[in-house]
Amino acid sequence: AKTVTYNWEVDWVSVSPDGYVRSAVGINGQWPCPSLLADVGDRVIVNVKNSLVNETTSIHFHGIFQHGSNQMDGPAMVTQCPIPPGETFTYDFTLQQTGTYWYHAHVGGQYMDGFRGPLVIHDPKAPFSYDEEVVLTLSDWYHIQAPYLIQYFQSPLNENLHGGSEPVPNATLINEAQNVHIPIEPNKAYLFRIINMSGFAAQYFQFDQHEMSVVEIDGVYTHAHQVNQIFLTAAQRYSVIVKSKPNNNQNYAVIASMNDDMFDPGVTPDDIDQSVNAWLVYDNTKPLPPPLQPIDDDVTQQSEDDMVFVPLDNQKPLGPVTMQIPLQVNFSANAQNQNRGSFNNISYNAPQVPTLYTALSAPADLVNNPLIYGANTNPIVLKMGEVVDLLITNYDGGAHPFHLHAHQFQVIARSSWGPDNGPPLEIPTDYLAQEPAAPMRRDTLLIYGNGYAVIRFKVNDPGITLFHCHIEWHVEAGLTLVFIEAPTELQKMKLVLPQSHKDACQKQGISITG
Ligand code: C2O
Predict the structure, then answer these.
(1) Which residue segment(s) compose the domain that 349 sits in?
(2) Domain-embedded: residue 317
(3) What is the arrangement of strands in the sheet containing 43-50, beginning at the earlier edge strand?
(4) CA angle, corner 123, sides to 118 and 128, nearest 5?
(5) How far is the CA of 179 from the centre of ligand 1 (A)?
(6) Residue 441: CB within 6 Å of ligand 1?
(7) Tens-place pLDDT, residues 152-165
(8) What sections of the protein cross the membrane (predicted)?
(9) Which atom of ligand 1 is nearest to the CA of 63?
């Protein structure tokens, strides 16, 4: 294993991926942001300098376990203070897993302004072979900067303002661009790592006349499964192997198409680019075929079914279950008439001091008491070794892609869409008796409108573990909670807070001890 060091200066860059010029958050003067590439076992050091001037920042490494390094997880006011303008901050952790991940800003919707990129961990013992590897990112793109859109989304519900509707993206991008040419040679096996870095839209993805064999989802190797289309919610990843054609007689189109289920027609501009094409270019002297038409949600429901994937290790359900936590998901107007999301009727509001620092500095006899973390962060304390089932019931009519930091959870049960106007479908009381033999594992799962899911994980990663909807608008609307995972063991770990972490707090007058 080696140490990979990245020095990233974060700053505004002028970009126009769909022809419309705006500012994006770039790295070292470049946008799209670079890929973070490493091998399993490597130590990664990322030195971040915030040169944005007008915004704080922070980086989350999506799907990374952070065993013993919770202070490097990245969400602002959870495991660190946001990095103030002008400051430098160091992330330093070791990679203990393999596969396809990504990194993104974890403060105030900033990743929707472009601060997002692939994170790929190579595995010398990967259980499949291929000749070439290509990373493809899918993303939704807005013409207006995120802070304005958040303000609009969280403005009081009002028919003219449509304050309750999520802002609709202006465009879809592949590799943060339109019409990307992917050079392809005949007769080869290509590993495509496909990452949905969208802030809102789920995406359908398809190669024209090339089947995909799915071999990994969210960092978990799966039994190979042939499909011709995949569906990725915000934050999900799929690795697929594609055999190229035996000759270079022609070129082929590739399409990513946003699912518009949650786009309120009242706020959807007429001219959005709902889909984007890229091209498999076998021979650049030959013409490109016509673009593919946007993918129609209604005829493609089948590609949404990720329950068909089975982890390659056939891991059985963890057990016995020692804790069952019912979570009710809701959206409703608060007293100020803002559209707020909640778990068990609590909307998340960030604390005054990052939750991790509260846990580290608490007296040992209080650290397991949820009250010290503040009711507005929706804290749930979990003891080391506990096997937890989250029994999630969605009282909202929209589907939500839920993400648990630092774990790959097992999907024990999931319903399809519930009735349009509720009430939601109920979790079968005997769900434990119906567990799949080898449940799918991943880190981001779609739960359908008025539907439910049961997900299971083992408490093995002391630290503060966020659980939230990965639609960035819904994070801003408070659809987040924090697990205080094994705080007693966390205190014994003696985590080292680099000076840059203390400085970030101090510069903003946030007092931390220890
Ligand atoms: Cu990619 Cu808190 O998440």
Answers:
(1) 323-507
(2) no
(3) 22-27, 3-15, 43-50, 88-94
(4) 105
(5) 28
(6) no
(7) 999 888 767 777 88
(8) none
(9) 1
